[in-house]
Amino acid sequence: MKKQNVVRKGLLRSALVLFLLLATASLFGQTIGDVTMDGQVNIVDALQIARAYVGLDPTPYNEAYADTNCDGTVNIVDALQVARFYVGSIDELCGSTETETPTQTVTPTPTTTPTAGTAEPRVDNPYVGGTLYVDQVWSEKARNDGGAAIADIGTFLWMDRIGAITDGIGLRGHLDAAIQQGANVFQVVIYDLPNRDCFALASNGELRISEGGMQRYQTEYIDPIVEILGDANYRSLRIVCVIEPDSLPNLVTNLDDPDCAEANGAGGYVEGIQYALDQLGTLPNTYCYVDYGHSGWLGWPDNYSQALQVIGNAIKGASKGVNSVAGLVTCTANYTPTEEPYLKNVSTEVIRQSSFYEWNTYVSELPFAQAVRQSFIQNGFPSTFGMLIDTSRNGWGGPDRPTRAVTSGSNDQIVDGSRIDRRTHRGNWCNQKGGIGERPKAAPATGIDAYVWVKPPGESDGVSTADFEPDPNDPAKQFDPNCDPNGQSSYGDGVLTGAVEAPHAGRWNTLHFQMLMDNAYPPL
Hints:
29% of the residues lie in helices and 9% in strands. It has helices spanning 2-13, 43-53, 76-87, 136-144, 170-181, 213-229, 248-253, 258-263, 269-280, 295-298, 301-316, 348-353, 365-378, 411-418, 510-518; strands at 17-18, 26-27, 30-31, 107-108, 157-159, 185-190, 238-243, 286-291, 327-330, 386-390, 441-445, 448-452. Strand 2 (26-27) and strand 3 (30-31) form a beta hairpin.
């Protein structure tokens, strides 16, 4: 935190000096700024300099070419200079050559920092006419693992702990990068409630209700995020916030769990989400979407009606009531298909009586999201109310994808032969063998504001072994048996989890990423 504060103060109080040398000034034939030594200066070099500055060990990285402003030190300013050079905000980087070169006249030049943008009027759907910010940290990982086809797609940035606000380039650094990219939609997940992930273990959070977690959530987490998002430099951005995945849905179905029961009381989920909505609601350019689980969780009639009441009342209790949100988001970090094309002509009774769907009314996410939206509008929410669907990993393509409907046999034979969802049980959620789904798209269907990638493909759902090293950034994360590739699913007798080997939740998983690429639908 101190490093970033010093850098920001330095950026505000001093002008950087640019030497009037050739734009490709070189050191022993190597271009200044090209720390990866690949013959070009681009955003990857900026990321490598930033990683080295915060204490990581980037590879490849040659520090001899990292002092891009020639001040004798290498720090985050040098990374920013490379980024500015890459997007064309500055024309040259300062450098030196192999031979002695007389120092030229120095001309002080103001730094190119984000300046206060022009706020636009609030829009109904923030994705229409939007250009998504591409998280270059995720993008580079994807590109390095063979994901060039999707590396330029905008994903959500997860603020999953207090430290995430400032770690690495931090929230402010990502916002600055969005401005530099010329993006106008910035997507962020708010995810640090006390007793977070109360019914599972893989993403247990850092805060506990019994230890004053709500106070910390408000003052150390929400308030700093709102302060940063409220900076005038970012008012030209439409800031889309997904609010606390897997929180309110747990209050619908899992109150028999002690952690969830505690989260249903004072200092719990409802209080925290209302505080987040109230504070984010003070910013005219924020668009909040509260998490609503998915059809395989809340699609049964009883769950459906209870969720409408629990989640609807929680939103109505915020200071702006039904106007506190732009809408809801479903399928966050889940694998439920957007549509099941080969079940459309199968009898509803056959589907509901099958072992896989277990009398659930909804088999896919799009009709579920559209029905939920209509229910909320009928319950007093405005007609502008919209839905997001996370399609990052629900593609279910690859060689095992059915190509037609099965029309004969038992209920299970018809359903299992026709469904594109290839999970062993619909409740399985950890590191499943799905595929990259629909690419982000604005207004793809009636009532749907956008298909989005809330969960960045390649990031783990949870650690796959009980014998694990604690995550140093998130030591509360635990092993969940549903993430064990050889274990039994807790959602069905004798059913395997269907998980693959993986590190802690949020960590990069090459195996899973490449599987998602191979099984993408539509194909890449």
